[in-house]
Amino acid sequence: MTTSTASWNVSTDNIGVTGYEVSLKGTVVGTVSGTTFNLTGLSALTAYAVKVRAKDAAGNYSAYTADATFTTPDTEAPTIPTNLTVSSITMTTATASWNASTDNIGVTGYEVYLDGALVATVNGTTYNFTGLNAFTNYTVKVKAKDGAGNSSAFTADETFTTLDTQAPTIPTNLAISSITATSATASWSASTDNAGVTGYEVYLDGTLVTTVNATTYNFTGLNATTNYTVKVRALDGAGNQSGFTADETFTTLANSISYCAASGNYQNYEFIDLVKLGSLNNVSGQEANGYGDYTNMNTNLYKGSSSTMQLSAGFTYGSYSEKWRVWIDLNQNGTFENNERMVQTSTNNAAIKTVNFTIPASAMTGATRMRVIMKYGSYPQSCGTFTWGEVEDYTVTILEDTQAPTIPANLVVSNISFDQADLSWDASTDNSGVVSYEIYDHNHNLLGTTNNTNYTLTGLSAVTNYQVYVIAKDLSGNNSLASTLESFTTLSIPYCDSKGNYQNYEYIDFVGIKSISNATSSDNGYGDFTSQIAQVTNGETVTLTLSAGFAYSNYSERWRVWIDYNQNGTFENNEKVVQGVTYNGNNYSYSFTVPNNALEGNTRMRVVMKYGSYPNPCGNYTWGETEDYTINISKKEGLEGKYAGPGYDLGEELTDSELDINVYPNPAQDLLNIESVNAQSYRIHDLSGRVVKQGAFARKISINDLPNGNYILITSDGRGEQQTRFVKM
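The chain above was modelled as a monomer; its predicted structure follows.
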């Protein structure tokens, strides 16, 4: 609210003026005796009309003055805008927004300031900044205004940074100078950037070695006589990267190492004719003064890898017995030491002699000297002169072998049977040579290793899906990537046929074993009941019940029952579990014990009943019937620490030589390490005896797919089995 003061001149009266009546906008607002009146409670920025009339003691009033008009002022400022934010930020634009202010009369606009300078006055509550600089910090504030010119206080400062998505230009004029045996200097012309270049990344042989602010960098610790490749790219403060410069290559100088002199005094009769190693292939004749300097010839050798070298002697007239030695200065100290002698051999004629040697992992990388000496009569020393023979010096560059072999291609599975399959693939290539191939299953368990491009998987389970892949290895331990994963399924075990030709009078009437209780009539000489499965365990004594059926009258029947314990598709004599005679249609029961070394899994049980004589497991016969069933064999709980091979009882303790299996860590989480002598395969059982994992033996087995709990690990060497417990956590 606001106020104003009205004033006027004194009126006259014949008796005397007693007061004045003040009217505001037609309404009497007060009476005063003086000639001023303070108007209060007025609204700001509002037009008013005031008039006054005089009165005397008799109640007489003068006429009103003419209206005096006025407008009250507005001195109340708007409230401060709230919630100032900046959004939609780009490299050159941004949008500020805020909540509206309030005012007693009304807000007429907002002044927007950028970095302390007024940039705009707007009626709304947003403003779009344009023409900003990329990757620059800015500060925004806003205040409100009303029609009377009153301004609110400023909002708090709101800061923001514009984006920068523009990369610097590529550095130009990359050059290498000041090259020594161990150092070199790279330099380039500066890049430009909309927001400014902050540094340069310098790469050597594809590896980032440093980031610098300058346009030069000095490489140190380089190897002598070695090729290097340099490239550079620029960075800005927003993390934008320029493209790389073109590669710039250079070769460091040779070390200034002095080697001892060596030469043959007489090379008229014999001389070094051929030195071949890697890309070095030098055929030479007689050298002046018994020495040939071929240090301008260079080949690469890889640490930990085997190299093949060929040497031959040349003769002017006949041929002689020559002694050869080859040294390589592995530690690059200028001395040919005894442990640096790579070759010692002899020849008796001009035929090429092939030798192999391996560069030790301790050798220094880089270029170094190789000395080849051929001497008549005795082995030479690395320095000095001798009578008959010759010396040649070469340069070899020793490198780390980090190159993996190529992926084995065209993996093919063929000749699949119930227990084996043949694998073949195309050979891999490698800079230092492929030495072996490893075959794995889809759980990354090692199934086998071979030097060839084929391998036969054995000991497979029938009617089982397998997935395998192959990797190549080189001498340095580099592994190729895996080949394609090939899937195949083994065939069912082939069993011989067995059938009775006439079953009109007698046939198998009942077979009962564990969960199987199969009552049948005549099956035309053969009944395939392999879909019926009986569960048994190693070492378990099992009862088998049999009975014959007759069409007319009873006959004397001979029975034999076989179980293919070793799952090889043959019913062998030691697999015959029942042999007996029945004389009528009654049930006859027989007991047998499942051997401790019987293989786990599904296998075939054959029941044959024959009139007159005991049957064989295969072939046709006159009177009777054959029926086949499936038996599932599992390990009995508590077999750990026992040997279940032939000739041992499960109750017999093992000696230290018979029990040799260790697992760690135990408990284990993802990977189980196994130490087991001569092991070929493994199985893992849960405590119910169920096989939960099996395969070819590997020293490391993934168990991350097993639930947490207690397990039994069994390894087999083909003769017997070794067992222990472990815990999966």
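The longest strand covers residues 384-399.
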